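User: Could you go from structure to sequence for me? I need the amino acid at each position, not a summary. Structure tokens:
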């Protein structure tokens, strides 16, 4: 194994509301030295445009503008590129995060359909026993949603719904976004300083 290989993570952004979560996740991973292999669904690009106001017509330029100049590199893979490196289990990455994850993508992963690069990359994580984290963003949830999540959880997939906490005293949307991204990174044992932890919150001076 190449000891000089930089750690890499696959990140998927779908058409679920909450593209800001995925953006913050990518920026944080790049800042701490991870390479990011990015896959965005067609609906994901639409939501990025609508929620963040970004011009998505030139996607490579957009990625360089928002994710360039960091410790790690962001590599963009089109959703239909089934020949991409991350479509093969022989390509080494630390894991994959889909954030936010639509119910359609979650269903595709649960069924093992591998009908596009995002679903195929997730299937690779399952077959190679690598960490897979899904951050569903939908409400309310019906029985099919819940059954698909249970099926994946039983396979070892980490299901981290987009449910921010308030015990740390958030004062902005960015605080809430950072908390959720931090919870995802905690589950992958990636160090960060995105939010104040409960123990830190309660410690008194001199203790």
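Assistant: Here is the amino acid at each position, in order:
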């Amino acid at each position: 194994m190449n000891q000089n290989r930089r750690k890499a993570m696959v990140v998927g952004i779908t058409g679920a509301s909450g593209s800001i979560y995925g953006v913050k996740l990518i920026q944080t991973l790049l800042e701490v030295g991870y390479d990011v292999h990015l896959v965005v669904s067609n609906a994901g690009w639409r939501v990025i445009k609508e929620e963040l106001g970004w011009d998505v017509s030139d996607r490579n330029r957009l990625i360089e503008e928002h994710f360039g100049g960091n410790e790690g590199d962001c590599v963009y893979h089109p959703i239909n590129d089934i020949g991409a490196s991350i479509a093969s289990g022989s390509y080494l990455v630390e894991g994959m995060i889909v954030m936010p994850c639509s119910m359609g993508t979650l269903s595709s992963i649960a069924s093992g359909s591998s009908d596009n690069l995002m679903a195929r990359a997730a299937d690779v994580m399952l077959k190679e026993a690598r960490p897979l984290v899904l951050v569903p963003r939908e409400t309310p949830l019906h029985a099919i949603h819940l059954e698909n999540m249970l099926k994946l959880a039983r396979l070892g997939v980490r299901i981290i719904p987009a449910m921010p906490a308030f015990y740390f005293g958030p004062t902005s949307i960015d605080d809430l976004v950072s908390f959720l991204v931090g919870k995802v990174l905690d589950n992958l044992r990636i160090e960060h300083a995105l939010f104040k932890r409960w123990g830190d919150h309660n410690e008194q001076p001199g203790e």
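One structural detail worth keeping in mind: The chain is about 40% helix and 15% strand.
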